[in-house]
Amino acid sequence: MTLAQKIIAAHANRDRVEPGELVTVPVDRVYLQDGNSPTIRNLFAEHGFTNVFDSSRIGVFFDHSVLAPDVKIADRLREAEEFAEKFGLCIFKAGTGISHVVALEKGWFEPETIVVGSDSHTCTGGAVQCLALGMGASDVVAAMVTGKTWLRVPETAWIEVCGVPQQFTRTKDIMLYTLAKLGQKPFLYKSVEWSGKWFDTLSLDGAATIANMAVELGAKCSFLPEVKDKPYNLLPIELPSEGDPRRFRLDIDGLPPFIAKPHSPSNAVPLDECYGQKINYVFIGSCTNSRLEDIAEVARVLAEEKVHPKVHCLVTPGSEAIYLEALHLGYIETIMRAGGIITPPGCGACLGTQGTIPATGDRVLSTMNRNFLGRMGNPKADIWLASPLIAAHTAIRGEIPGTGDLS
What we know:
single chain, about 400 residues, alpha/beta, Aconitase, domain 3, Aconitase, Domain 2, five-stranded parallel sheet, 18 strands, globular
């Protein structure tokens, strides 16, 4: 069986399950975020639910609106707090960080467990071989009340990564290239298993970027091999035979950095094709690239430089722990002295529900996972996607760099 089948079968107390089967399984943890907590709260009231299966295994993260921009959202956050307190749920207050980042830090994602989250990027848990599933409000409520969820056992696709990319190519570039090269169609509602010697070079921060963007591939979930700074009991990854249509070989040998042009992550091209494009807003953050490794690289680039006077450079650490460590290591001071703005940990500008919302006509370069039209709150702004390395160089230059400009 595949990894998804093995985990689902174990939870269903069965010897095996087959792709396409509808199966009900117990969940190990459930979490929701402030953005959809009103819907979940209303469903509890509508159906008269008065209990949850285990309050110690259900978390509420206040990450989408860390700084309430208006009275409506402030009231919504207060209602979410009251709901969480009523049921004795684990509260991760505003400033703790992004749900998926904190869940990885605090061990809410564990190998071979099933975690349900009310946000599509819950799939980040695949970095440590957790079957982490983003679901809608109704399914999350059912899991909170019963401790179970139903799902269709996904088929599996395998991506074998071969070769060594260029010096300045990061995991974000690999994901953008994968989207451009393979698209979403082969992976819709699939479980994606990654393999290849390249993964031996990744830290957990880098692996999380790959896992996080599985949903951009259209996948149900994804699983990465063991990474060097996070040992755990690894489930075996088995590749199907050569020629199997479910198996994909991704050649990254010599691959340059990539960048996604507006208005889709799959609209990705080699960096040099966007060389010289003027940018006036750089956002470094989101559940994709807000970890310590990302902030360290930004600080390294900005150490002897200044942010371009016509660039608004916003940096949002993914969690309180990341913020404090970056502060301790001097990264925060370096970025601020260079002209960057540091915000409290959370989702920040990614969703467009709080600042900084781009102005009309702005050209934004972001480290987020999505650049759909209007994603950051203004459909009259254009968004490019790139790695933190490219973002930092862009902030200095006021335009997208070429590969020859990187260091």
